[in-house]
Protein: Transposase
Organism: Massilia glaciei
Amino acid sequence: MPRRARLMLPNVPIHLIQRGNNRQACFFADEDFRFYLHWLGEHARNNGCHVHAYVLMTNHVHLIISAAASGSTGDMMKALGQRYAQYVNRTYRRSGTLWEGRFRSCLTQDEGYLLACHRYVELNPVRANMVEHPAEYRWSSYRANAQGELDPLLHPHASYDALGADQNSRQAAYRELFRFELAPDLVDDIRRATNGNLALGDQRFAAQIEAALGRRAAAGTPGRPRKPPAPVSGYLF
């Protein structure tokens, strides 16, 4: 049975996760993290992708990205994954697959969900009990988004810019978002959407995705599958 095509639309942000094969480590030293981020920036520019948030964990990567074309994110991740895997195999004299197949992803609604996804991504080291606060973890976008640390890799999304009239107010509002943990139900929604290649948002957002792509974007229900709606021209996001 063929794999279901990813849900991708131009300029609609996605959350993606790529894991090491068998959940094994894919970063072994500080230099590995630095090389990955450098090449992420290079391949993002080459493919018309904007990185809004990220975290590099020992055995997996989370990214929030917007792309100018539907296929750009896949092209970027393919080139980046191959280049980084070649570096790891050469550096550590290993062979074989580094990554666990295809990355997993979900289209993410701007209103109410994108910044929650930011929090989910940048709080990963806290949930993993690696640090007590996201600012203590070096390999994420939190210090740039919340504290103004220079990070040329990042391109703030409009939802982030709307947090305040200037940089200081935006950063203060962003830090305020992290005062409380994400609701467990929201964490489950993000994981379910990302692992299931679904739309992360409300019912209206999912319906718009389905109308635009002519494919299912929400979790299925028991029974005979519904015929998807016909694609429409133009997006309503």
Notes: The chain has one domain: 14-205. The radius of gyration is 18 Å.
